[in-house]
Design goal:
With about 300 residues, the protein is of the alpha/beta class. The chain contains 15 helices and 12 strands.
Length: about 300
């Protein structure tokens, strides 16, 4: 009887101890940095984390700019950004990361995109292994600046935030001021072309943000019908001062589509943008892929196209 009572006492004591430990607040790493990611999550990551993996090439480049190292990246880090990472493992594509390879790298921090659906599935797996991760987005220069501030706080290299962030801000502010001071601001059609189609953009793109900051008129924002039906007839009707085009996928195939859909029309050569050399193909490295340390170059290039 005494033995049973003793065992019962031990069981109750163990239960109380377990409950007490479970209720204790979770403590962050002593040398950690806490920030809010692009989805509003509060994230704490150990400073100078080891085995960092980026699931988007643009973010991988930003991490390197911040002075960090990478053990894993997606294919676009090499194909689109030509990053020099001979020792980094490829962890699948940006849209379909390979979780098996990712976990084999024993990551200490995983950088992911808030705009890519496939990364949410990865997050559930990382949660189950208590692996720190954060979502980011970079549609504007402010997005880039916020990301760079987080990254340089983690790498312990604030001087890189000054050189590759705040110094660019000064150049960008100067360009925006010059553009806003212009008396004659062009009406602009901004479109993204693919091999099988072309669509106008009114928002949710870095070029749209830059046009707004310059004070230019984005005709797709003024005429929402263009978003649903970007026909050559509608373009002729609007007759924009400038037509800007970026390419998605294979550039040559997209150009061939434009020749067929737009340029073969007999009225094409009479458009103001065509007559005044305002029909411009924007370079992919500055206006399709995120320019990162070249954001100021992107602003200055767009200013020259629109006003010079």
């Amino acid at each position: 009887m005494k033995k049973i009572a003793f065992l019962l006492f031990i069981a109750i004591l163990s239960s109380l101890l377990f409950t007490t430990v479970a209720c204790l607040p979770q403590t962050a790493p002593e040398d950690g940095y806490t920030f809010t990611d692009a989805t509003g999550r509060s994230v704490t990551v150990e400073k100078n984390p080891g085995n960092v993996v980026s699931l988007q090439g643009s973010f991988a480049e930003t991490w390197l700019i911040a002075g960090g190292d990478l053990v894993g990246v997606t294919t676009d880090a090499f194909e689109d950004f030509n990053l020099d990472l001979p020792d980094a493992e490829i962890v699948g594509t940006v849209k379909e990361p390979n979780t098996e390879i990712l976990l084999s790298l024993n990551p200490g921090f995983v950088i992911m995109s808030a705009d890519i659906a496939g990364h949410k599935a990865v997050a559930s797996l990382l949660d189950s292994f208590s692996i720190p991760y954060a979502y980011f987005k970079q549609e504007t220069f402010d997005d880039y600046l916020n990301m760079l501030e987080v990254f340089t706080s983690l790498t312990g290299k604030p001087e890189n935030y000054q050189t590759y962030g705040l110094a660019l801000q000064e150049r960008i502010d100067n360009v925006i001021a010059k553009a806003q001071a212009q008396q004659n601001k062009p009406e602009v059609l901004f479109a993204r072309a693919r091999s099988q189609g072309v669509s106008a953009k009114a928002s949710d793109h870095m070029v749209c943000t830059m046009l707004d900051e310059f004070g230019c008129v984005n005709i797709a924002a003024k005429n929402p019908s263009l978003l649903d039906n970007l026909s050559i007839e509608e373009i002729i009707k609007q007759d924009p001062d400038v037509i800007l085009v970026t390419f998605m996928g294979d550039e040559e195939s997209a150009k061939q589509y434009l020749v067929k859909a737009w340029e073969s029309n007999s009225a094409w050569s009479g458009l103001t943008a065509v007559k005044e050399h305002g029909y411009v193909f924007l370079q992919k490295d500055l206006f399709h892929f995120k320019p990162n340390a070249r954001w100021a170059d992107a602003y200055e290039t767009l200013y020259k196209i629109l006003f010079e």
